[in-house]
Amino acid sequence: MFNIETHIKAGSVQEAISLLMENPNARLIAGGTDVLIKLREGKPAFRHLVDIHGLAELNGIEKLPDNTLVIGSGTTFTQAIESDIIQTHIPILTDAAGSVGGPQIRNVATIGGNICNGVTSADSASPLFSLNALLSLQGPDGTRHLPIADFYKGPGRVDLGPGEILTAIRIRPEDYEQAFGYYYKYAMRNAMDIATIGCAVCLKTSGGTLTDYRLAFGVAGPVPIRCREAEKAVKGHPLTPALLEKIAATVVRDVNPRTSWRASKEFRLNIITELSKRATKKALTRAGEELS
Amino acid sequence: MTDQVLKQITFTINGVKRSLAIDIRKSLAEVLRQDLGLTGLKQGCGVGECGACSIMVDDVLVDSCIFLAVWADNAAIRTVEGEARDGKLSKVQQAYVDEGAVQCGYCTPGFIMATTAFVEQCEGKTVSDDEIRKAHAGNLCRCTGYQHIFNAVEKSMTPDDPMPGQDDHPNQES
Amino acid sequence: MAVGKSVKRIDAVAKVTGRARYTEDFFEPDMLTAKYVRSTIAHGRVTAVNTDKARQIEGVEAVFTYEDVPQTTFATAGHPMALSEVHKDVEDRLLLTRDVRFMGDEIAIVVARNELAASEAAGLVEVEYETYDPLIDPEDILAQDARPIHEGRSNIVGEHNYTFGGDVDQAFDQADHVVEGRFATAMVQHCQLENHIAHAYMDDLDKIVIVSSTQIPHIARRIVGEALGMPLSRIRVIKPFLGGGFGNKQDVVLEPMVAFLTLKLNGRAVQINMTREECMLCTRNRHPFYIDVKTGVMNDGTLVARDMDAISITGAYASHGHAIAAAGGSKQSSLYPKAATRFHARTLYANIPVAGAMRAYGTPQVIYALECATEDAARKIGMDPVEFRLKNVARQGDINLLSNKEILSCGLVECLERGRDFIDWNRKKKDYEQFKTGPIRKGLGVACLSYASGTYPVCVEIAGSRIALNQDGTVHVLVGATEIGQGSDTVVAQMVAQTLSFPYEDVLVVQAQDTDVTPFDTGAYASRQAYVVSNAVFKAANQLRDRILAHAGIMTDEDPKHLDIVNARIVDNRTSEAVMDMKTLAIDSFYHKERGGQLTAEISYKTTTNAPVFGCTFVDVTVDIPLCKITVNQIINVHDSGVIINPVQAAGQVHGGAFMGLGAALSEEFLIDPESGYVYNNNLLDYKFPTFTDVPPLNHDFVETFEPTSGYGNKALGEPPVVSPPPAIRNAVLDATGICINTLPMSPHTLFSAFKSHGFLDGKGGQHV
Hints:
The complex is a heterotrimer of chains A (about 290), B (about 170) and C (about 775).
Chain A: E1 6-9, H1 13-22, E2 27-29, H2 35-40, E3 48-51, E4 61-63, E5 69-72, H3 77-82, H4 84-89, H5 91-98, H6 103-108, H7 111-116, H8 125-130, E6 134-139, E7 142-147, H9 148-151, E8 152-154, E9 157-158, E10 165-171, H10 173-176, E11 180-186, E12 197-206, E13 209-218, E14 225-226, H11 228-234, H12 241-254, H13 265-286
Parallel strand pairs in A: 1-3, 2-3
Antiparallel strand pairs in A: 4-5, 5-10, 6-7, 6-10, 8-9, 11-12, 12-13, 13-14
Helix pairs in contact in A: 11-12, 12-13
Chain B: E1 6-13, E2 16-23, H1 28-35, E3 54-57, E4 60-63, E5 76-78, H2 91-98, H3 108-121, H4 129-135, H5 147-157
Parallel strand pairs in B: 1-5
Antiparallel strand pairs in B: 1-2, 3-4, 3-5
Helix pairs in contact in B: 2-5
Chain C: H1 12-16, E1 32-38, E2 44-50, H2 52-56, E3 60-65, E4 99-100, E5 106-112, H3 115-124, E6 126-131, H4 138-142, E7 156-164, H5 168-174, E8 177-184, E9 197-202, E10 208-212, H6 217-228, E11 235-239, H7 255-264, E12 270-273, H8 276-282, E13 289-297, E14 303-315, H9 322-329, H10 332-335, E15 340-349, H11 363-380, H12 385-392, E16 399-400, E17 405-406, H13 412-423, H14 425-431, E18 440-451, E19 462-469, E20 475-479, H15 488-500, E21 507-509, E22 513-514, H16 529-556, E23 563-566, E24 569-572, E25 577-581, H17 582-591, E26 600-606, E27 613-624, E28 629-640, H18 647-666, E29 699-702, H19 725-737, H20 748-757
Parallel strand pairs in C: 1-12, 10-11, 14-15, 20-21, 28-29
Antiparallel strand pairs in C: 1-5, 2-4, 2-6, 3-5, 7-15, 8-13, 9-10, 9-12, 11-22, 13-14, 16-17, 18-27, 19-20, 19-26, 23-24, 24-25, 27-28
C-alpha cells in the first residue's frame, strides 16, 4: 500500500493546472512507474497526487499541416514505438522508446514523465536533444514553448513553474526532414536497465559531406547534453573514416561524466567516445551513406 | 490521510463485472490479491522489475504492483485465473506445461500473461527470436534460464500441435 | 516405465493456472505484520533505542528490541544436528542484536495491524550507536589489532587443510613447470523470485504453527526450538509451494522471529514478508573467495601438483560458515584424482551481509579458480586445453584419495568429447585465429566440474517415504524430500510408478510439507534430494509391492511368488494373464471384514554413500574490446549425473544452473562500499540478474552412466550446472584476448580495468587495438 494522503483525479489539463495551483504540495502522476516507486520508498514529497493517468488530451502523436510533429506528453513508450509517424520520421525515438525498461513499463510509462523527472539517464531525453525538440508547457498563464536543452536545470530539476504541465513535445520539420538519427544505449543489461551512457546522433548529409550534425548524450553530465564542440568540428566534414576519429577526439571536450558507484568517469569516457563513433556510423547507414 | 480513502470502482475481472469500494492507496495487485482473493499473481519486487505481478488491463500487459487500483475503474482486467476455461488450459498454459517451462512456478502466472499478451498481439505475424526475448524481458525467472519458456512461447505461436503431449524432446535447443 | 521419461510435472497445472498456493497466499484472520528496524551502520554497538514515537503510530501493537529477546545464541545453518563437536554450526545469532555487524542488522521489530503502520513506525524507532570501523578487506579483518566482530570469538570462523596424492612440495619440485594465479569471486545472490516470508500462530496454548517458505522444514523446527528454548514437538512447520530457494532458504531466517512474536502476542498470527531490498541485503548470499592456486605440470601434459589457499568471507554471521569452504575444497579430489594436492582455507567474519548456502556451496568459487589454473597450465606447455583435461580428469575406477572411495561411475571423458564436438572446437580454433587482433575478438573456452550427491560423510543423509494404497487403486506418497521448484515430487512419483509398475498418473505425491505429518528428511540442499530419496522410495515401493502381492495371494489363494504387478494389475507371472485390477484389490483390502487393511509401506533410510558427478561447459565468445563486453555466442553444458530420471526436468536444471553461472560470470555482484559497508544495489534493477534478452540459447547434453549406489542409477544434478560456465567463459576470453581476467564477474568494469592495464584502452577514450 502506498502512503498517499490525497489523490485527486484531473479530468482535463485545465483542471490539473487548477488542482496544482490549489495544492502547491501536490505532484502529478501519469504512468506512475517513477512516482509510485518513490512513494514506496516512503518519499513524503509524493504523498499528494494530482492524477493525469490516461488523460486523453495528453495522449497522441500527430503531424501538423506545417509538418511539425507533436507528441502528447501522456504518450506511452509503447504507443511511440508503434507509431507510424515516429517510425517514418524520427526512428531515433523508436530506438530510444524500445530501449526503456521492459514491455510492462513501456506500456504505461509516458514520454512526458521521462522528461519531467529531470534525470540524465532518461532514454527519450538525448534523442529529443538531438532533434532540437520544443516542449509545450501549459500553466495558469497560458502556454510557452521551450527548447528541451533549456528545460533541464540540474539533476532532478526542470523548468516547470507552479501549476505548469508539460503537455506536448514538438519536433520542427527543419530538424527532422532529410535528417537521420540513431540512439545507442549502453547499459549493463539489454533490457530492464538504466543507461550507463545514452548516445543520440542526428545528421544530414549532402554530396559526400556532413551538412548537419547533432550529437547528444545522457549520463555524460548531470543533465542530458548536446556536444557543441564536436558538432562544430565536423560540420562539413567529408564522409571518410577520419570523420569518426575527429568526433571521438573532440567529444571528450564536450562531456563531463562523473564517477559513481555505477561506473567510473574513465569508463564512461571510454564508452562515450566509442558510442559517438558507432552511433554516427549507424545514423550514416540509415542515411544510405558509407564512409570511404 | 484523506477522508476519501475509499472509492467505488467498477470493472470486469476475467469477464465478470464487479463493483467494489477500494482503498485508493492500494496497487491493483493488492486489490486483486487481498480484496478479490485472486492470488495467482505474485509480488517479487514491488517496483516493476520482476514482472511476477503481470496482468492485462484492457488487453495491455502491466505490472500490477505499480499500477494504482483506481486506474482500473471501467477497465477489463485479465489475470491468470481467467485463462483456463471449462477445465481446459489455454494454449499458452498448455505449452508451458508441455515444454517443461514451469519450475518453482512463482514467475509463471506473470509469464503466462506476458506470453498471452504477446501471442494475441502477434496473431498472424511471424516473429523473430529476438522479438520473443524482448517481449518477455520484463519478466524475470531464476529457475529456467528462460530456455524452456522460450520453447513454450514458440509453441504457443504455432498452429495446433498434431501430436500433443509427446514425450521425447530434442535435447539441444538452438 | 516411468523413469527416464519426460512426464509432465506433477504440479505444472496448479502453477500455470495460478492455483498453486505459496506462503503469501495463506491468510490468517486478523494477522499482524512485523517489520524489522535495521541498523544504518555496518559496525558498532547500540547505545540507546527509543521506541516512544513508534508506539504512538495508530495500528502498532508492539515493539520489541534486543533487550526483549532470549539471550541464548543459536546457529541458523540448515544442517542436520551434528553429534560431533567438529561439525557443529557456530552459534552466534540472537533474534535481535545490540551489536551491529552489518548494515541492515536487526535491532528491533515493530508489529502492527498493517504494513504501512509497521513501516512507518519502524522508521520512527530512534537508535544511537557507538561506531567502529567496518572490517571488510581480508587484510584488515586478519590484522593483529582488528576488533573481534563477535566478542570473544576470533574473526576466523574456521580453518582447515588437507593433502592427498603424495608429497605436494616434492611434486612441485619435480614438475617441469609451475604456474601460479590469484583469483577472486564476488558476493552474489540467489534472487529466488519469492522473497523470504513466514507467519506463525498458536493453535493451542503451547503449540506454534509456522507457515514458511523454507527448504528445510524439519531443520527449521529444531532450530526454532533451540532459539526459543521450546520442545521441538510443540513446533509445527508447514511449507506450502515454494518460489525458489537455491540455498537462500536452507537457513532459518524468519521462522524463529515469527514464532517468538506469536508467543509474545498471545498466539495471534504474525507475518514477516520481506521486501526484495530486505531479502537481498538481510538474508544470505554467496561467500566471496580469494584463492591463490599453484599448479605443477609436466611437459607431456601430466598434472602432478596443486596447491590452493583460499579465503572465504562469511560476512556478519557464520551461518553455514566454514562448511562452505570445506565443501567447495573437497570436490577437486574427484575431478583430478591423481595430482598431489594441498588445500588450505580460512573463513572470515566481515562487516558485510551474511553469506550462507547457495547453489553448489563453495564449489563454484573453488572450481572457478581450479579450472582457470588448469587452463593456464595447459597453455604454459602449449597443449590443447581439451586434450589436457582428457589426459588428467577422473575415470571410472579411479580412487578419490580424499574420501578413499572408488569412483563407481564417471562419464567425464565422454562429456568432454561430446562438448568438443558440439561446439565444433577443432574447426573454430582455426577459424578464430584471424580474430586475435583488433577491436572484436573471438575465442573458445572449456571448464570441467565435479560435485557430490549429498553431504555424507560430513552430515547424516536420511530420507523418509510413506506410500499408501488408496481405495481406487492409486497410491499417495508422503516424502520428507522438499519440493522447492526443482521437481523432486515429480521424480519421486516416477520412481514409485517404476517400482510398483503403476501408471505415473496413479501416483500422487502430497505436495505440502508438514513436520507433524511428513516423514523425516532434512530437506532440499546439496543436490541430495533425488539421490538420497531414491533409496528410501525404492525400498518403500518394494515393501508396498510385496504387501499388495501378499494380499493378492490371500485373495486368490495363490503363492504370491507367482504373482506380479504389471501396469497396476495383478498378473500371474506364469501365464502373463491379468488376475485382477488394483482397485478390486484395494477395495478388498480396505473393506473385507476379516482380511487385509490399508496397505502401506514406510521406510526411513540412511544413505552412506556419496556418488561424485561430473560435467563440463564449452563456450564460444566474442569480446568487444572498446565496449568492454563479452557476448556468449554458444554455450553447452554436458553432464554425467547418472541415469536421467526426467530428461525435460533435468534439462531445466541444467539451463537454470548455466544461466546462474552466466550471471555470476558476466554481470552479477553485490557492490559494497569498501569504507562504509553500504550495499548499493540490493534491488533487481541495480543487481544485474540477466533478463530474457541477456541469455543466449542454452544447450545441454547428458552422458548417462549408471550409479550403483543409487536406487535408480541417478546422481546429483540440481547444483552442478552452475559451476563450470564462469571458468569456461574466462578461458574463452583468455583465448580471444590473451588476457587472464581472474576476477568475477567479468563485467564491463572488470574488462575495462584489464584492457586498460594491458594498454588496449587508455582511459581517456582512446584505443590501441
